[in-house]
Amino acid sequence: MVVANDVIHAKAKSLAWDNERRTTAYPTRYTMPGTTKDPFRHLLGEYYAMERAKDDRLYGLLTDAQMSSGPRAAGNSRWMEILKPLLGFTVNAEYMAMKSMAMLIDAIPNSELRQGYLAQMLDELRHVNVQNHLLRYFAKTAVDPAGFNTTHQYRASHPILRAGRALFETFLSDDPVACALGLQVVTETAYTNPLFVATTEIAAANGDQITPSAFLSIQSDEARHMANGYATLAAVLSSADNIPLVKQDLNLCFWRQHAFLDPFLTLIYDYSSSVRTRSYLEYWEEWVWEEWVGAYMDRLAPLGITRPASAESAPANVRWLGHDLAMLAAALWPVNFWRQEPLTQADYWWFEDKYPGWWARYGAFWERYAEAVDPANRGLALDALGQLPLMCRVCHMPAPECPGSSLDPRVVRDAAGRRHAFCSSVCESFFIAEPHRYTAPTWNELNDGVELSEYVLREGLVRADGVTLVPQPQLSIDEARLWSVGDIKQLGVEIRDPLARVPEDQIRVLEVVQ
Fold first, then answer.
1. 124 annotated active-site
2. 332 conformational bin, left if phi > 0, alpha if psi -120 to 50, beta if neither
């Protein structure tokens, strides 16, 4: 006798542990209903078959591509280089998301929701494997594989990826329901389209057909994760007591995603494509501002949920903060694990067209960067900044350097005497509310006083000869004069944390104790 799928499905859920007697290591301040609608009304056996078929197609494609294209992956060099930090960043995000789902399965006393969380945890594990396999493929086939094989080791030590890690650890370092809202409702609903879908478009335009295949396979899972987020949100909104908590947590979660993802993706899309489609600002305005803030969040108003207050300043920030980050990444090129070439005249015209006023803000720096490509010129574009920017204690992103920015960098000292910099009043307010969550030192603090060539050697940023740097301020590795550790050492550059050098009379006292 054939038993209906819904009967088997209900029987499987009935085998879950007794919610009245269980305990969890991850308590939540939210009131959760014992039962809800099931966001995944399919059996895990069917899920396995579907995911196995996708993996067979994807891994078969990678094998075929390596056999048919020979030892070199397709894709122009500017794009291939930025894949090194991009893939390192996404693998870290997927791994944190997987751990977040495991925490939710333990924390939430609701069999329907846990069914969805289990499927998502398996999805996230699959994504970790897919992206690691992609890194392995490029490490074998890229023209310059250096960096593809080491990207994981820099997620805590590189100044940009360190900020990304600080963001993605919020997926598992808070109330489990708040973590679910940050991951499923904000990151996966608002940002996976500009991340995975836009990447496929840009990669294909730049001759890379492999990354789109992997990322579209991943994005096909993200639609289910958005459904998970909607189910989680519907569950918590079933109790009016949860509404103030939801508003508070969504406000924090959106700002943390915005503070890192928008500048980072501007660096990826606008500065690392030889053939561009749209600007990151255009992607963001469509998918984040119009579809998520406008269509998704505003439709929750009848339930008492308004768009996050922190979103109001986001449109002005997105216009410039990514360019600040790109300038810092170029100025600090010796600490990167990828190569970055100077911008061309065509790039200048494109930026000025997409971001009117760009040249007045950034043109002088990028001209200096082009001059400093040859080590014989004995200089770094870092000198064009004057000093490193302050790093925010909360988001670990650089405070804005450009006049007219909508963010307001500030420096404070707490009652225990420790100095903190914040990129904005928003990050400062989060710190005041929960200072115990933001104790990690910034990259500037960790490396204050370290000579640059010592940093390069310590972090293993040299090639097999032990002399030539992995990062370079240009793309040619065959004919150009490449920078060596000795070239950096001759410059005598020392990493200096500007926070430690702010005069005492310019520091406010903040009434919190660590």
1. yes
2. alpha
